[in-house]
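User: My instructor asked us to take a sequence, write out its structure as tokens, and then describe one feature of it. I'm not sure where to start. Here is the sequence I was given:
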Amino acid sequence: MAVSAKPVVSGRRKGKGIIFAFLAPAILIYAIFFLYPAFNAFQISLYDWSGFSFSSARFVGLANFKEALADKWVRLAFANNLIIMVVGGIFMFSLALFFAWVLTNRRYKGRTFFKTAIFLPHVINDVGVALLWVFIFQPRFGMLNQLLRSVGLSNLATVWLGSHETAIPSIIFVFVWYVIGFYMVLLIAGIEGIPTDLYDAARIDGASDWQVFRSVVLPLLRDVLAIAVIYWMIGALNLRPRVGNDQGPAGQPDAYRGDLHDDLGLAFANSDLSHGLRDGDLGAVVRGGVYRLVAFLPPAPLRGDRVFKEVGR
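Assistant: Let's start with the prediction itself. The structure tokens for your sequence are:
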């Protein structure tokens, strides 16, 4: 009597099915609430539309984007956001790596206190952070200028958010102060995931703290750093501070302009929605391009001989 054999399903195929089953709800929500609105906004940006009746919209192709790139305010916004992304990124990652490396060293006491203190600003609401630092930077009765005057440094007191020389550095400082706790915790998790055997082997070979950090920690933090850089670049390009007019001299232009979406509000006021969505799409295109550029870089292989090749030099 012949016995029919049942088809054998490999474990890998079962695993893929389980993964897809868990990912499907998230992908569906992402498609409904992000992909579809983004595609719809891009479609609208290709038309000259007042925002009321789409039947009266006139297809203009990429003309809106060409006009945006010719706008000096859009170019200035890109330039300011790029400055924050590069300069602020160097400053922030240097501090975050330093704090993460020091606070994972068991030789130092009070590590829990300093971790909490550094991470605390990140749990404060955005509105609270804005009100706090606007009060600190206020030129007449702000805490910073009052402190400078009280110690005899009145010549350093200035309109921090209304001056072209101090607006961007002030914003970089506040932004780094606000987010550094998140990146520090991310890097601490990466450092604590490195096997202790690698540290012991490096110490036996006579490596100093700096050599261990450079030749062991940094190479093994590459994947974590890549994720952190993606988060930072998207956040920096999406930064939208409102500063300048309320603190600068009357009639002066904004000391800082970094909001690609300011034109969206003007577009509603001027019945020109397609131009507002155009500028928003430009920001989304740049952020999406940065994400794809960083996320899909081919990873370099991490091998033991490569990790330890400089240890002991």
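For the description part of your assignment, you could build on this observation: The first helix runs from residue 11 to 45. Try explaining in your own words what that tells you about the chain.
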